[in-house]
Amino acid sequence: MGYSSFVAIALLMSVVVVCNGGKTSTYVRNLIEKPVDMPLDSDAFAIPPGYNAPQQVHITQGDLVGQAMIISWVTVDEPGSNQVIYWSDSSLQNFTAEGEVFTYTYYNYTSGFIHHTTITNLEFDTTYYYEVGIGNTTRQFWFITPPEVGLDVPYTFGIIGDLGQTFDSNTTLTHYQNSNGTALLYVGDLSYADDYPYHDNVRWDTWGRFTERSAAYQPWIWTAGNHEIDFDLQIGETQPFKPFSTRYHTPYEASQSTEPFYYSIKRGPAHVIVLATYSAFGYSTLQYKWLTAELPKVNRSETSWLIVLMHAPWYNSSNNHYMEGEPMRVIYESLFLKYKVDVVFAGHVHAYERSERVSNNKYNITNGICTPVEDITAPIYITNGDGGNLEGLATMKQPQPSYSAYRKASFGHGIFAIKNRTHAHYSWNRNQDGYAVEADKLWLFNRYWNPLNDSTIHIP
Ligand SMILES: [Fe+2]
């Protein structure tokens, strides 16, 4: 055999080896340029003018079904009013709700006045306007409530994770704002303030101002990531999740949860369960007990789609955080199969990855059966840890494993568009040279109403 033939065969073999899994996007991102945080005086962090003007305005669902909203904002000159004045576009009547104000200290930082006010008894599928900063500088925003919970109600969620506050984060958020997502499933790791000396909490404030342009107008559904823990013994900060849980509230009590980091909501056609990677999750824990009580309550004749959010992914073929999700998967995966979870969104890994429908549920530590297998009863696992934070992109293990359908270490966001009880369309929209490019897309079939094989690549 000549040298050229040998090289050709070797190349062919290497291609065969590398391609034994799914698809790796051919787009080559410039990996040399590490993302950089936007400077403190960036327009994206602009402080609204006026005495005691509300800033960092954000909203999240405030009850189980979408008829309440938690309105949150920060004032810096004085506590000011906790009131929210709100009205619908179909009514001339104004309503007023009263909330609470919180502050915290973190090492040498003292927060502004963090307000949380829940407005209730909202009509479904209605535009509401709301005002905060009553008595000082008043600012007005608006949002649209979801349709009433129902089987065939179309509804479009966005998915962003690990956003941070770099120039790339700014691009991701702009692309998401240009989409038709009407509520955002946020899969954890928000500001990355803890990457700064003493977890500089000023970067929590800048993140709040940066994200206001979306989060004040549609609910962001919060999942806690490791960058929310903010536990640092060396500077005497021993209360985990202090900045996050003071700034970002969740409606956990509405689903009988006892901790703000795991809870569920219903929104239109979806039952969304948020799990807590960084809270205790073993068999004897409150989280496990809550989930095993929650799953039987999911009524697929009411909410046709079952979505789970968590931070650390279970199926991840990146070098970064490889197998970190394994302890939780071992305990919870059988429940996901039993209750026909449709899709699991995670973050943590700074890349995009979508699994085939696979499970690894047969393994019992002695039987040696520890490889994921094709399983059309299983959820599809999607990692959207690609928001664009300052830590940069993940690198991938080679070869791509068979359970991995599509992966790419590049920034972007996801769109999950539920059409009816049987079909939803998912797309991953990659940031590419200033544009959002729909790089990965597929139709998902509902595991309860339409449990056919929707894999894009068949696993032999
Ligand atoms: Fe993370």
What attributes does this structure have?
460 residues, Purple Acid Phosphatase, chain A, domain 2, eight-stranded mixed beta sheet, 6 helices, 26 strands, binds fe (ii) ion
What does the model show?
- The protein is an alpha+beta fold and 460 residues long.
- Helix content is 15%, strand content 28%.
- The chain is built from 6 helices and 26 strands.
- It has an 8-stranded mixed β-sheet, with no helix packed on it. A 6-stranded mixed β-sheet has the order 14-13-12-24-25-26, with helices on one face. Strands 2-3-9-6 form a 4-stranded antiparallel β-sheet.
- Strand 2 (55-61) and strand 3 form a beta hairpin.
- The chain is globular, with a radius of gyration of 22 Å.
- The relative contact order is 0.15.
- It binds fe (ii) ion.
Query: Tell me, what is the CATH class of the domain at 150-188 and 261-445?
Result: Alpha Beta
Distance between the termini: 33 Å
Spatial order of the strands forming the largest sheet? 1-23-19-22-18-17-16-15
Assign the CATH superfamily of the domain at 150-188 and 261-445: Metallo-dependent phosphatases
What overall geometry do the principal axes of the alpha carbons give? globular
Give the structural class: alpha+beta
What percentage of amino acids are in beta strands? Answer: 25-35%
CATH topology of the domain at 150-188 and 261-445: Purple Acid Phosphatase, chain A, domain 2
Biggest sheet statistics: 8 strands, mixed
Query: Uncertain spans, ≥5 residues at pLDDT below 50?
Result: 1-20
Q: Which architecture name of the domain at 150-188 and 261-445 does CATH use? A: 4-Layer Sandwich
Q: How many helical elements? A: 6
Helix content: 10-25%
DSSP, total strands: 26
